[in-house]
Amino acid sequence: MIKEVHNNKNDYFLDITTILQYTSNKEYLARGEALLGNFAGVWESGYFKPHHRDKIYEISNAMLGKSMRSYPHFYDFVNCLTLFVRTGQEDESLEIWLTELDTLSTTRSSKPVADFLEYTSSLFEKSMLFETRSRAWYFRNGSFSFGFDSLLYIDFPEMDLICSTGRDSSLIENTKGKYYIRKEYFMGSDGRISWRRAGFDEDSVYADINTYEVDVKTLSFSSDSAVFYNKKFFDFPIPGTITEKVLSSPPADRASYPRFDSYFKDYEVLGLYEDINFYGGIGMHGRKLVFTGAGDQTARFIFKKGGEYFAVIRSLLFELEEDEIVSAPASFSIYFGKDSIYHPGLQMRYDNISRVLSLVRLNRGIAQSPFFDDYHKVDLYSEALYWVMDSEEISFEMVRGISQTSKIEFESDKYYSEYEYYKLQGIDEVNPLVRVKKYADRYSSDIVQVGAFADFLKKPVEQAVSMLLMLEARGLVVYNSDKREARIKPRLYDYLHAHQKATDYDVIHFISETADKRNAVVELASFDMVISGVPEISLSDSQSVYIYPYNEEIILKKNKDFTFSGKVRAGLFEFYGHDCSFEYDTFMISLPLIDSMSFFVHIPDTTGSQKEPRYYRVQAMVENMSGYMMIDKPNNKSGLKTYPQYPIFTSQDHSYVYYDKNTMENGSYDREEFYYDLEPFTLDSL
Question: What is the tens place of the pLDDT at every residue in 383-420?
Fold first, then answer.
């Protein structure tokens, strides 16, 4: 091995030849011979100026002084010089590169020189910017040159930049920038990122970026100057930020990158799908088109019917994938005039293929709340709501496909139960309603802040949240998990006043249970709700008034009014009628077509041995009646006050008593010949 190279053109080539032949490795010799054949031409080409050659001689001698080997060190050096010529590098680029190499050669260690030569060879031959066993950043379709501005960099006037893990990759097309080798940092500008790796056409879904920076030691980068395009849904560009991340495993159908989010959260998109508008922010997270809100500003989907707004769904995040929109939690409102059916937090799913909107109550958090129905004035404890957009009805029922039996509960918005009150209290000394009321009084606010409430209770925050969620499940507060606060609903105060017997309330609470049938169907033209599977409804426990609908069906109308056919039991009297109606405000049952009325009489205890009262049904029934029943005073639906004259039934037309039943003299009295004709009458104290 020679100790020093000559400082002239011809002898230097001979010296390099000697160095590359200084090996017994046949593979190295073959590679060296091939390289020398290429180097001979470029060395004589005139590309290298005298000052270039002087630095080459100096660097070569420094390498010999560091005992650097023929392979790979001198081979890489000569190979790089050859590639500078073959790739058409400018004179300045070569000068900067040689200066950097000359500077590195002054260090005590040979490693900086060896690493830089290896890096440059990889840059030329593999287009590699950075490479480890698990990741690589490289370019294609581009050219480069070396530059210097206090640090050495590689300038790319045009290129495609690629990051790859072998199983996943990302591409920035038609970009440019500078790569700082020592900092392992790329500063880029311009370029396009498509969502091809997420399964979309690269000309349909993409983002153009302005400036960005990449730490190549990582697998991700972002840009806050991106403009997004999704030509299927939007005919306008959307400015925002983009984040890209390459994964270590194949994303397949679960691709969640690239991720774009719009700057603005007030876009209006009319006709995203037929009769569906959107308001809010827009993003694209891998395969999912996302619709976002920010802070107090939620995103909204507006569902139209007959050209008018019909339903509004609000959430901080909606996701659209394969023509299906999902969100959880999402608040929901259906409007009918000035009234609505509302829920604060559901799992929402809309399938545009079937045009089915489904809203499901989950068994946790705010999703446990009932549906609040301002039109019918009831709360619905239903698992799910379904609406086929082209139909004229919505339904309440259990989640489809899980059970053949479906059960939901209906509760008046003025309902109160002493049992439920103490059930909320459990084993605590103080009812949670009282605690919330005292908090509201102390802070003069209907907003309960979780932290302050926990301090007020002198309990952990988790217990305070649990208490508020329990009250929300009963529709007494509305809890906001993002703000960690709850808004007290007027019903909480009503519940306390009812417990204190300071206000009137009602006891209307009933269950619908069906098999292979929807529990409740709202007819959208009238907003009447047809409820099935209702065997019994208690209207007044104090006056013992109950309804037993035929076919277990009622039609619920505005403000808890409903129509039905069936049996009405009031105290000792039973009425069997058709086309009956209950009016909540007047607390009256209209009975226009009564087939019959029967009643019971008390059997006196002549022996004093009866443990329970005994009653006897009078066999003769009053038939073909028409009238109405006042259940109690309209302001005494709770029965807190005693009015013994109620219930009161008023017959409004002639009615009849017949004796042609087999139970009475074997039916020997023909009804056409023998009967009692009763003029209109009134019965009280039923």
Answer: 999 999 989 999 999 998 778 889 999 999 999 999 99
Same structural domain, 472 and 561: no
| Residue of 70, 65, 64 whose CA lies nearest to 23 | 70
Query: Is 162 part of a structural domain of the chain?
Result: no
Region 360-375 average pLDDT = 81
C-alpha neighbours within 13 Å on the C-beta side of residue 484: 10
pLDDT at 361: 85
Whether residue 389 is found in the same domain as residue 273: yes
| 199 lies in some domain | no
Place 665 in a pLDDT band, splitting at 50, 70 and 90: low
For the chain, how far is it from start to end, CA to CA, in angstroms? 124
Instruction: Report the candidate in 119, 143, 138 with the shortest Cα–Cα distance to residue 128.
Output: 138
Dihedral over alpha carbons 476, 481, 487, 492 (to 10 degrees): 10
Is 147 a domain residue?
Answer: no
Strands 136-148, 152-164: pairing is antiparallel
Q: Does residue 112 have a cis peptide bond before it, meaning omega lies within 30 degrees of 0?
A: no
Q: Assign 79 to helix, strand or coil.
A: helix
463 and 572, same domain (yes or no): no
Residue that terminates a domain, selected from 111, 126, 141 = 126
Same domain for 34 and 13? yes
Evaluate if residue 151 carries a pLDDT over 90: yes
Name the residue with higher pLDDT: 475 or 357: 357
The average pLDDT across 217-235 equals 95
- Output phi, psi for 274, to 5 deg: -55, 125
Looking at residue 23, the DSSP 8-state letter turns out to be: -
- Kindly state whether residues 326 and 349 are assigned to the same domain: yes
Domain-located, residue 355: yes
13 and 58 inside one domain: yes
Q: What is the mean pLDDT of residues 286-306?
A: 91
Tokens, residue 158: 């045009």
Distances, alpha carbon 315 to alpha carbons 117, 453, 530, in Å: 56, 26, 30
Same domain, 268 and 408: yes
- The secondary structure of residue 383, as a DSSP letter, is S
pLDDT tens sequence across 241-251: 999 999 877 66
Phi, psi of 65 (to 5 degrees): -65, -25
DSSP-assigned states of every residue in 134-199:
S-EEEEEEEEEEEEESSSEEEEEEEEEEEEE-SS-EEEEEEEEEEEETTTTEEEEE--EEESGGGT
Q: How does pLDDT run across 465-518, given as a tens digit for each residue? A: 999 988 988 889 988 877 889 999 999 999 999 999 999 999 999 999 999 899
Neighbouring C-alpha atoms within 13 Å toward the C-beta of 239: 5
95-109, 165-179, 475-489 — which is least confidently predicted? 475-489
How far, in Å, CA of 303 to CA of 240, rounded?
A: 27
Q: In 10 A of CB 258, how many CB atoms? A: 24
Number of folded domains that form the chain? 4
| pLDDT band at residue 617 using 50, 70 and 90 as cut-offs | confident
Helix (H, G, I), strand (E, B) or coil at 14: helix
Residue type, 547: I
Look up the domain containing 71 and give its range: 1-126
309 shares a domain with 386? yes
Calculate the average pLDDT of the chain. Answer: 92
- Short-list 90, 87, 61, CA closest to 74: 61
Helix (H) or strand (E) holding 469: helix 461-473
